[in-house]
């Protein structure tokens, strides 16, 4: 039986650079080592690499999918959630986590970062977006330099709303 | 590590009769004994009773919640998915399963039955809705007489879309 | 300028029989004559016929679409709402109305009927589903014999939640 | 009858500064003068000011609401769409428009900007977010200096996907 425990989301592009994939895989491994359940959008790229990393260390992976069936899930998703609501599932990905690690990513990732910050869920960034509003820097995204630092900060800041 | 396996949804009212609760708990226990992961809407009533039963036999329980945080989940939900999309999460509950067991229930449950049948996901009914259209009986909901029969039929009919 | 006024949803299959199409068109015409704004799911079949009828009498038509762009709307939709959330938009169709007229329809229509009844929104039925629960007839769907009667009942029962 | 025409979304905070409210009202007025239908999230702040402006010039206003009933709409919304899907309605607001004008705003607005850019819908910004990724400026948000310029650019860039 899985006890109720920590859930951390890893977000990023469904296509990504080799460097981002390595980072994501390392994040996935480190989350698994620390006993954290990985939540993601269930598709390829950063999501797949993170799930692969978690699997290699015996971790649990949840993929919250946009489409109509579970077959779009990457092969490392153990628990596919099939929403059928398209990109609106981005909100569910971050709300199901106590902290979010963003790796690279495009506008879909930015929408997930936005939904997390709107909900008061901490976001740790690895080579991802930075924000400013009305010409003032917004420092809500907490920067990390590497996978281990990202995971440590995410666990430390994980909120229990 | 959880291998990818069978997911069956249990749906029904967030308030229910003692008889429905007993049925749901037995369904939950039987699903767990057969190694099936239980998916539900994560709240009280039939959902809570089913999760309680699954927990008592060491099963895994997923609760796909309508609201904005995981604290609305019943205490037997191990994996809370926080959607923030209200009753639109009903669709995700059934789409994330390969078969659905409906116990009693009101209009929310009927919407879940509808979404399942629309998606070609088998629905097993225990004291629940029956349907007719244009005065012709619709026999899409497969009747079961007790918890064990419901679980056996659900496992037998579980589709892999 | 459109004043805030009555909104009534017409629901039914995206494919339908010629008889259902005639009924839907007549319902659309009658809604327009009575100054009611027609809400629907924006696609073909019953939805298109109802919008066509409303257009022919100078009425206003809103189509709440499941997909990612407005081009799936039937040609009689004047105000396309593009949700991108798939069948989860069924809920928005009925919640945006003060009463619902159901014509024929399959499981998608049944999910809309369920969501309406769950929300306390009156449902008028023309050759559509009938429901029973635990072997007791559920008379929540109010029967009508023809288009005019359906529209009259819908207007009479339209709730202002 | 409303002919099918241009739809432009105005997005921004449900609470806003007096300066933002003035800007939004002017944007609403200008959209109405140009015969554009205004789409928004239907609540207060920037949304209400924009709808007020549009009303004052005889324009049409659509409010796509997050909650369960239309009574949360600001008094200048003529066509309330009730989604019941919470912040996931942000996606529908931008997808229902051919261009988006963002005025100020916080993380909810940022999620709308993200969804628009992800869908290839042009975003015009007035004192709003600016973005950079991996330390490179992202110039996808088109800057405007005042309400008239914002509306002119939005109309010019309005896509017909």
Q: If you had to describe this structure to a student in words, what would you say it looks like?
A:
By secondary structure, chain A is α/β, with parallel strands linked by helices. In chain A, 35% of the residues lie in helices and 24% in strands. Chain A contains five helices and nine strands, in the order E-H-E-H-E-E-H-E-H-E-E-E-E-H. The first copy, chain A, has helices at residues 18-33, 46-56, 89-95, 107-118, 147-157, and strands at 7-12, 37-40, 61-65, 79-82, 99-103, 123-126, 129-133, 136-138, 141-143. In chain A, the strands form two sheets. Chain A has a seven-stranded parallel beta sheet with strand order 4-3-2-1-5-6-9, with helices on both faces. The first copy, chain A, has a two-stranded antiparallel ribbon with strand order 7-8. In chain A, strand 1, helix 1 (18-33) and strand 2 form a beta-alpha-beta unit. In chain A, helix 1 runs parallel beside helix 2, helix 1 (18-33) packs across helix 5 (147-157) and helix 3 crosses helix 4 (107-118). The relative contact order of chain A is 0.18. The mean pLDDT of chain A is 95. Chains in contact: A-B, A-C, A-D, B-C, B-D, C-D. The A-B interface holds A 1-4, 37, 55, 58-60, 62, 64, 68-71, 77-85, 88, 91-92, 95-96, 119, 161 and B 1-4, 37, 55, 58-60, 62, 64, 68-71, 77-85, 88, 91-92, 95-96, 119, 161.
Please give the structural blueprint.
The structure is a homotetramer of 161-residue chains.
Chain A (H helix, E strand, L loop, with lengths): L6 E6 L5 H16 L3 E4 L5 H11 L4 E5 L13 E4 L6 H7 L3 E5 L3 H12 L4 E4 L2 E5 L2 E3 L2 E3 L3 H11 L4
Parallel strand pairs in A: 1-2, 1-5, 2-3, 3-4, 5-6, 6-9
Antiparallel strand pairs in A: 7-8
Helix pairs in contact in A: 1-2, 1-5, 3-4
